[in-house]
Design goal:
The chain is mainly alpha-helical. 77% of the residues lie in helices and 0% in strands. α5 packs across α13 and α10 crosses α11. The longest helix has 43 residues.
Length: 325
């Protein structure tokens, strides 16, 4: 599927891809906002100072993912990488494509856009697969460890807990370099009828670094979520911090793991409502889920705007100087 999407991207002029991308994002936002129950938000008393802090913390988590991406490429042996601002811009555009229709589009878009900057396409494909898988695995493991020491875990259905644990274990096993590389070798032989190049391999260093960095990223994202929840629930204790890190980490991981659903829409929300309802009234949990979903859409747009400004800003200034002279 990813290979097919990248192939289709290459057949379409870049300018047309950009136009279609923008139109698709706008269409998603219109549909999403139309189906959003804003009555839930009217019941909330929001402290906007906490919202600002939460948005900044979550924006930092988006840039942290760029750091992880660069680190994985470095660990796989990519010596020359584009500037951080350029890679942030590529990542931000690809990240927005999760909304149309989901994780697969995000990975394919990132490969397509970054390949034009001199990074080998095979290495981009492997790094993106490792990144997407490890993002789910690391967040799930960290979240389950936290929830394992929390009495509120009893509110989560046993079947759901078992499924999450089994999926995480399977992902960890598959990401073990000898197994991953062997599966990739077999898939490449079946599809292209030839042996894959050395670029289509992961290393133990890439696996270890990606796990550590995504584990840290789970806490960065969780901190932003905690601040957003605090903006609505002023009586929230600091003791709930770790639980919220786990709740948002686990729900986010499950949302990413569903590849064809726009940004995990519905799946992520359903899991989050169950987890939040364990520490607050269900009505408030539903309202907070709607509130944070809208906040995350705003953050993703802000991420794209900041990345675009930092990337295009210097070029625009140079053009203005040349125009004056």
């Amino acid at each position: 599927m990813i290979r097919t999407l990248v192939y289709l991207y290459r057949k379409i002029p870049k300018r047309l891809v950009s136009v279609v991308f923008i139109v698709a994002i706008i269409a998603f936002l219109v549909v999403y906002l139309k189906n959003t129950d804003f009555n839930q938000l009217l019941k909330l008393h929001i402290n906007w100072w906490w919202v600002v802090l939460g948005l900044l913390a979550t924006l930092a988590s988006r840039y942290w993912m760029v750091v992880v991406w660069r680190t994985i490429l470095w660990a796989l042996g990519t010596s020359k990488l584009p500037s951080f601002n350029l890679m942030s811009y590529i990542y931000a555009k690809a990240w927005m494509s999760r909304y149309v229709p989901g994780t697969v589009t995000w990975i394919a878009g990132k490969i397509y856009m970054a390949a034009g900057e001199g990074i080998p396409r095979g290495r981009l494909a492997v790094s993106s697969l490792l990144e997407g898988s490890m993002q789910v695995v690391a967040a799930t493991i960290v979240s389950l460890i936290i929830l394992g020491f929390n009495p509120h875990l009893d509110s989560v259905p046993l079947v759901a807990r078992i499924v999450v644990v089994v999926v995480s274990i399977l992902c960890l096993v598959i990401l073990f370099p000898p197994i991953f590389n062997r599966l990739l070798h077999v898939a490449h032989m079946l599809i292209k009828k030839e042996k894959p190049s050395n670029e289509l391999r992961i290393s133990g260093r890439a696996v270890v670094w990606s796990f550590i960095l995504f584990a840290v990223g789970t806490f960065i994202t969780g901190t932003g979520a905690y601040l957003l929840v605090l903006a609505v629930d002023a009586h929230l204790s600091f003791g709930s911090y770790l639980y919220l890190v786990a709740a948002f980490g686990l729900s986010g991981a499950i949302g990413i793991a569903v590849p064809f659903v726009p940004s995990g829409l519905g799946v992520r929300d359903g899991v989050l409502i169950v987890l939040l309802a364990a520490i607050m009234p269900k009505e408030l949990a539903v309202s907070l889920t709607v509130f944070t979903r809208l906040a995350y859409v705003a953050i993703d747009v802000l991420f794209l705007g900041c990345a675009s400004a930092l990337h295009h800003g210097p070029k625009l200034q140079q053009r203005m100087k040349k125009a004056k002279t």
